[in-house]
TrEMBL record:
<dbReference type="InterPro" id="IPR017853">
    <property type="entry name" value="GH"/>
</dbReference>
<keyword id="KW-0624">Polysaccharide degradation</keyword>
<dbReference type="GO" id="GO:0030245">
    <property type="term" value="P:cellulose catabolic process"/>
</dbReference>
<dbReference type="InterPro" id="IPR001360">
    <property type="entry name" value="Glyco_hydro_1"/>
</dbReference>
<dbReference type="Pfam" id="PF00232">
    <property type="entry name" value="Glyco_hydro_1"/>
</dbReference>
<comment type="similarity">
    <text>Belongs to the glycosyl hydrolase 1 family.</text>
</comment>
<feature type="active site" description="Proton donor">
    <location>
        <position position="176"/>
    </location>
</feature>
<feature type="binding site">
    <location>
        <position position="131"/>
    </location>
    <ligand>
        <name>substrate</name>
    </ligand>
</feature>
<feature type="binding site">
    <location>
        <position position="30"/>
    </location>
    <ligand>
        <name>substrate</name>
    </ligand>
</feature>
<keyword id="KW-0326">Glycosidase</keyword>
<keyword id="KW-0378">Hydrolase</keyword>
<feature type="binding site">
    <location>
        <position position="418"/>
    </location>
    <ligand>
        <name>substrate</name>
    </ligand>
</feature>
<feature type="active site" description="Nucleophile">
    <location>
        <position position="371"/>
    </location>
</feature>
<protein>
    <recommendedName>
        <fullName>Beta-glucosidase</fullName>
        <ecNumber>3.2.1.21</ecNumber>
    </recommendedName>
</protein>
<dbReference type="InterPro" id="IPR033132">
    <property type="entry name" value="GH_1_N_CS"/>
</dbReference>
<feature type="binding site">
    <location>
        <position position="175"/>
    </location>
    <ligand>
        <name>substrate</name>
    </ligand>
</feature>
<feature type="binding site">
    <location>
        <begin position="425"/>
        <end position="426"/>
    </location>
    <ligand>
        <name>substrate</name>
    </ligand>
</feature>
């Protein structure tokens, strides 16, 4: 693909602020490999990958992209793409084996080298402290449904912070606590694979408590101003109609997917309607005195991960509004949009609505898009190059959605594409490819795709405008 401007790119770039970040994101378990190297101990994902049938093709993250051994070349790749920010996560069991005790110097040294390599190449490092790889011994002790895990996380966070805060300016505590809590403990689709709804809601609260504890401790320990925040996977929930059951179904989805996190983080309380809905299900959040003040520790940036939006109805197919347990019906209906290889509908207008909605409901909270991207069935040519026009179009439409949100007053300061390279896609193994760089898993050869060249061109245009 030519890196000259295509129609509309100049207008897109013109809608973005001057200091707008351009970058990519990854996570430790998805790319690092080296799971038994330099003192790292098992995480819940190492364990879950050994559960028969849990992961497509019985894939594991044992090798993944071998980033642990290929890190300098991968950083050089980010530099070659002209991107200024790299968001990566730190593997808790690599830095603090078994989730307790002193720091593992050999494991921490990898991230020390990574930060230095990024800074040498003029790339801003953005640390995410937790991207789902809970040390297995902490899960054996109860995991996130147990309150003590929040305190263990704060201790671990300080081990990383003390080592890297002299050079790292932006910190995310947690990535997508909804996934950790609900996919991990309610639906059994992610590690640790439990299906215990009350435990999942306890995990929601303890994850937020962990964020608040770590945020306060990091801020108190820093002699200089740093940006500390959290990253949420959020979406727009549209009602299927103006009928009250549909409106209520969309409200419940928004409450459990977005407001149950943002309200305590920003406003210092859980949404009253969500608490009432949970009470109908005989579930109560395990809030103790002082917890909400801790959770509401001021944050400097909200990371927004967006992939799709959904339409909700409160009617069952037979027209009833209550299920067999007497609870209100909530189900999704198609928006009749094109879909990615993940079977996710492509809804860029939902992205605009989401960002504008957050800016209005939680004013004064700067946002960065910390993940946005798509999986498609890539077909490489004989050189390994992928002409991924579908992914490129996805980036165009979603960056345009960001520009429109900014035009409507949202404070959005950057866009980090998911992901730098194809990687271990959790329960899908290696079957789904989100990367802007193709990885040949047999040879570990990296080949930038058309979408990578497109983002490189946009970043260059933005710098030179």
């Amino acid at each position: 693909m030519s890196t000259t401007s295509v129609s509309g790119d100049a207008d897109l770039v013109a809608g973005l602020p001057a200091r707008f970040r351009w970058g990519v994101a990854t996570s430790a378990y998805q790319i690092e490999g080296a799971v038994n190297v330099d003192g790292r101990t098992p995480s819940i994902w190492d364990t879950y990958c050994r559960v028969p049938g849990a992961i497509d093709n019985d894939d594991t993250g044992d090798i993944a992209c071998d980033h642990y051994h290929r890190m300098p070349a991968d950083v050089a790749l980010i530099k070659d793409l002209g991107l200024d920010t790299y968001r990566f996560s730190v593997a808790w069991p690599r830095v603090q084996p078994r989730g307790k005790g002193p720091v593992n110097r050999a494991g921490l040294a990898f991230y020390d080298r990574l930060v230095d390599e990024l800074l040498t190449q003029g790339i801003d490092p953005w640390v995410t402290l937790y991207h789902w790889d809970l040390p297995q011994e902490l899960e054996d002790a109860g995991g996130w449904p147990v309150r003590d895990t929040a305190y263990r996380f704060a201790d671990y966070a300080m081990l990383v912070f003390e080592a890297l805060s002299d050079r790292v300016n932006t910190w995310t505590t947690l990535n997508e606590p909804w996934c950790s809590a609900m996919l991990g403990y309610a639906y059994g689709a992610h590690a640790p694979g439990r299906r215990e709804y009350p435990a999942a809601l306890a995990a929601v609260h303890h994850l937020l408590l962990a964020h608040g504890l770590a945020t306060s401790r990091m801020r108190e320990a820093s002699p200089r101003k740093l940006d500390i925040g959290i990253t949420l996977n959020v979406a727009t929930a549209y009602p299927a109609s103006d009928a009250q059951p549909d409106v209520d179904a969309a409200r419940r989805a928004d409450g459990m997917g977005r407001r149950i996190y943002l309200d305590p983080l920003v406003h210092g309380h859980y949404p009253a309607d969500v608490v009432a809905d949970l009470a109908v299900e005989s579930v109560e959040l395990p809030v103790e005195d002082g917890d909400l003040e801790i959770i509401a520790a001021p944050i400097d940036v909200l990371g927004v991960n967006y992939y799709f939006s959904q339409k909700f109805t409160g009617y069952a197919e037979d027209g009833s509004t209550a299920d067999s347990s007497g609870l209100p019906v909530s189900r999704t209906l198609p928006l009749n949009k094109p879909r990615t290889a993940m079977d996710w509908e492509i809804v860029p207008e939902g992205f605009t609505d989401l960002l504008v909605g957050i800016s209005r409901e939680y004013p004064g909270l700067p946002m960065v898009v910390t993940e946005n991207g798509s999986a498609f069935d890539d077909v490489p040519d004989s050189t390994g190059f992928v002409a991924d026009a579908d992914r490129t179009a996805y980036f165009t439409s979603h960056l345009s959605a960001v520009a429109e949100a900014i035009n409507q007053g949202a404070d959005i300061r950057g866009y980090l594409a998911w992901s730098l390279m194809d990687n271990f896609e959790w329960a899908y193994g290696y079957a789904k490819r989100f990367g802007i760089v193709r990885v040949d898993y047999e040879t570990q050869t990296r080949t930038p795709k058309q979408s990578a060249l497109y983002l490189k061109n946009l970043a260059e245009q933005h710098r030179n405008r």
